[in-house]
Amino acid sequence: MAGKLTAETKHELSKNICDFIQNGRQQLFRIAIDDLGLRLQVKLNMVPHGLYIILNSPETYNLSLLNSDFLYIVSNISVTQLKVLEHLYDKNIRTMKQSLGTLKTFSVNCNRLQQTCKYLAPFLFTTYGSVLASSYIGQNNKVSPEALVWLLDGLNSDISSSRLKLASVFYSTGNMEKAEVILRHIEQQYYSYPVVAICECWRTPPPAVTAEFKRVCSEQSVDCIKHITAFCVRFIKVEINCVPHELQYEMFRSTQDDMIHRDKIEDFWMNLAIVDSLPFLYFLLYKIYRHLQRQQDQQQAISKLIRTIATDKNLGHRETALNILGQCMEQENRPQQALKCYLLSLQQRARNNAANFHICKLLFGVLAGQ
Questions:
Q1: Rounded-to-10 torsion of CA 164, 172, 239, 354
Q2: Residue 39: inside a domain, yes or no?
Q3: Helix axis angle, 335-348 relative to 355-369, nearest 10°?
Q4: Range of the structural domain that residue 310 is part of
Q5: What is the DSSP letter of 312?
Q6: What is the number of domains present in the chain?
Q7: For residue 190, which of 110, 275, 262, 276 has the smallest C-alpha distance?
Q8: Series of mean pLDDT values for 10-residue runs along the chain (370 residues)
Q9: In DSSP terms, which residues pair with 198 in a beta bridge?
Q10: pTM of the shown model
Q11: Nearest to 67 by CA among 218, 201, 181, 199
């Protein structure tokens, strides 16, 4: 190399070599070729092996292929998010933080696995923030500053799901005003873009899309995820204190007989409380306005919830939307309409459906009141 390097290049090389000598271990961890740095961290137990397997799977790599079909990419984001939630499902808070801290590190870099984390990480930051918030709410009905930091880090996952979780946290602590501001912002954004609901919890047909949605996808990069997609909202059981009690029933949807008909892998999502974004938005608005005694706004919210369930073809959890609508009808003292909602829910999903519990509870209440 004699005579081939400029003085400027020599100075840069000298600086890099000195940095490597002083911080050799960290430099090794940053080697992107063949994901060598990541695999070294796994070998040293710095990265949980289960999380590495998920993020290293071939379908996860496709998240970073900007020339891939947009719906295929967002579908894989949804599937991978569910896989990571399954990995974290029975872990303690410390283990969750270690795993998601790894994701946070990767999400700011640019190799193909790290590019994957860029799109996946915000969903999981929101989950961890919600887990922390649930722990604090259970103790003193407050949200810790650390929980808020994680929740805010995840806000730009998509147009709605992470913001809905933040609104649900505020609702759960009684901060109705902050929750309403967030929900109103979501609703405004939702109708400013050609938004499509995304759900890959179970085998559903590909979402119906408009010509405007296709145009936006063709003109922009995958970064437009945060403007034109609305993922379903997923809560694991350790988030339960951030979940409205009407939705908590979904975590316990299965009877012993139902469990026989569940696949341990394919039906993992049934352990979670999951609801589509737009129905959850109007449900939360209904609950907030009911609490604030704003009758007109309350009725508008429930009307929008009814219309969404009836007209949105892309709902992945229509049965859950019907279940929360039925409970709203009960609170409106309309038991016949509530029963109709639960029966329609059972038409959508006969087994592993919390509607069975709601019907028993409703009929018991009616008989007890006679």
A1: -80
A2: no
A3: 160
A4: 244-370
A5: -
A6: 1
A7: 276
A8: 82 82 68 68 60 60 56 85 87 80 62 67 92 93 93 93 98 96 96 91 82 85 86 96 97 92 90 97 98 97 97 94 98 96 97 96 84
A9: 231
A10: 0.84
A11: 218
